[in-house]
Design a protein that fits this description.
- The protein is built from eleven helices and no strands.
- It is globular, with a radius of gyration of 23 Å.
- By secondary structure, it is mostly helical.
- It has a single domain, classed as Orthogonal Bundle (MetI-like fold).
- About 30% of the residues are buried.
- The longest helix is centred in the N-terminal third of the chain and has 47 residues.
- InterPro entries: MetI-like, MetI-like_sf.
- It comes from Kaistia soli DSM 19436.
- It holds the Pfam family BPD_transp_1.
- Belongs to the binding-protein-dependent transport system permease family.
Length: about 280
């Protein structure tokens, strides 16, 4: 590619990124700085007066500090779910790659099915109710793990294929058992894909709206995305508070992506490059 084409391609990418990402974020920020009357106009304009602190206090204090409860619930849900996905995804990916058999073929089939088939909401609610896990954080954690585990397993399996089998044989000769082999030898080598799974799944779970809406109803179980209902109603909407809420729940995933962007790309492509 010639330098001129490369320059034009880079310029086009910057323009598209600005339109798709920067302009909507700027609109959210400007609306969050306005008062209720001015924000109701929904215009892309500079606020006549700044109400950042007032809007921030109102959002945090709304419905007995529901946003703080939502951040706590979302943090617990994200940390526990991602931890389980990393551990089980790595273990399953290692077994599927290292020990091929008819059972691993069947398991691989179900992994692909879990990745392709859409979730069945009503039967899942019925199962959760039967187990006494409906409207509980424990049940929601199991749901998030079940929905994200297939993708994690595929990433781990692709990366495990790049690790020489000689390491397994050497560790076995030295007397390492299966668990010691995995946790002491294999898992430390999976660091790039572990970071990728942590970041991608954390952002996905933290931003999840539909699953908590279906499986985790109730005031005490609210997550950050469900707090958007606080400032919306059929007859009146406080757009300044709504967009301030959107701004607050957008900042954590944005920071994660800014700091771990390179690690995400490295983990997604490591298996393909080394393979």
């Amino acid at each position: 590619m010639s330098p001129q084409r490369r320059y034009l391609s880079g310029l086009l990418a910057i323009l598209v990124s600005t339109v798709v990402f920067v302009i909507p974020f700027a609109f959210i920020l400007l609306t969050a700085l306005k008062d209720k009357k001015e924000s109701a106009l929904r215009s892309f304009s500079w606020p006549a007066s700044f109400h950042l602190w007032d809007n921030l206090v109102q959002v945090i204090q709304a419905r007995d500090y529901m946003l703080l409860t939502a951040f706590l619930n979302s943090t617990i849900l994200t940390v526990v779910s991602v931890t389980l996905m990393v551990v089980f995804g790595a273990m399953v990916g290692f077994v599927l790659q290292r020990r091929p058999s008819i059972w691993t073929s069947i398991a691989s089939f179900f992994v692909l099915v879990g990745l392709i088939m859409p979730p069945a909401v009503v039967p899942t609610i019925w199962v959760l109710q039967s187990l006494g896990l409906f409207k509980t954080l424990h049940g929601m954690i199991l749901i998030e793990v079940a929905y994200g585990l297939s993708f994690s397993i595929l990433l781990f399996r692709a990366f495990v294929a790049t690790i020489p089998r000689e390491l397994d044989e050497a560790a076995t000769i030295d007397g390492a058992g299966p668990l010691q082999l995995f946790f002491r030898i294999i898992l430390p080598l999976l660091k790039p894909v572990v970071v990728t799974v942590i970041v991608v799944q954390s952002v996905a779970i933290f931003n999840d709206f539909t699953n908590p809406l279906y499986y985790l109803p109730g005031k005490q179980n609210v997550t950050v995305q469900l707090t958007l209902y606080n400032f919306q109603s059929m007859f009146d909407t406080s757009y300044n508070l709504l967009f301030m809420n959107v701004l607050l729940i957008t900042i954590p995933p944005l920071i994660v992506f800014l700091f771990f962007n390179r690690q995400i790309v490295a983990g997604m492509t490591a298996g393909a490059v080394k393979g």
